[in-house]
Amino acid sequence: MTGGGDVPGLNACIRAITLGALEEGWQVTGFRRGWSGCLLIDPDDPASVAAQTWNLDRDRVRGIDRVGGTILHTSRTDPRTQSEGDRTDHVLHVLDRLGIDAMITLGGDGTLRFSAHLSEQGVDVISVPKTMDNDVHGTDYCIGFSTAITRSVAAINALRTTTRSHERIGIIELFGRRSGETALLSGFLAQVARTVIAEVPADPDILLPLLVEDRQQSGENYAMCVISEGAHIAGEGANADLAKSASHRTDGGVGQRLARIVEAETGIGTVVQELAYLMRSGEPDAMDRMVGFAFGGLAVQLLRDKRAGRMVALTDGNYCHVPIARLLDQQKSVDVDNLYDRETYRPKFPRIEGMPMFLY
Length: 360
Fold this sequence. Notes:
single chain, alpha/beta, four-stranded mixed sheet, 39% helix, 14% strand, elongated
């Protein structure tokens, strides 16, 4: 089952799980539409079962690793927070009636939290972390992160041409509500002038003069700035006009709000772009295809060895697994003190030796 937002690499993982399980002689059922699909199943109604599940065989998964998204479809649903109350019992009932011996769930923080809850109820579960934000605690890497970075860097560099041609300040907003790792790494690899992450408020009194100076010193009279969608602009709560704009999504996200401040305070035009779903669309890059295959294979091996209640992971460059509830211990975010300069809105790497391959 896949839950939460789609990312490239999910289908590679689904293929690896299916082929590995078939080699063990197991039957593989794909639950469609995340936990939402499971909630729609009435075990006494064959039509509802057929609508919300697929039999996964070699023909069904042939070639899907080359395709982005998830063939099983997905939803952002937590059975514990439904309008009619906690529906965990319904999920347990469905699994029991359909003869499901174990589950492998592919998801981000929300999906995997419910997976850990199911494990506590006695269900054999293996979790596979996926999120383009790379913010699941307990693993250095989540499926989808590399492709999101690759897409972002390419888009940022492409937008330089328009920003440079019009001598403006480019502001690119990237997904990342709680963690600024996607923005931090994309901004670093694209070598933008300034990067605003979700963990550190942006103070216009400091950031704007820096961007103006960057533009003046660029040699071509332009500058580029990356900002996390979850970033906060200092003073939004105190400025009535700004707060009004911030309270309506129709006025745009934080990138649009920052652009309005830049233009109002400096008189310099901006180029604003929310990359949004383009970051998670399309086929996976080599990294996400490789990790998808490996995570799927490891998940099957853990079930074969009767080691349920684990989350597959990458730590220090090695494939491994951790307790399924590890992600509940804390929220993963950028190590601001060691990897970010609050005063300049730039990454900082005081040392390279011993640093993780992926910043966190």
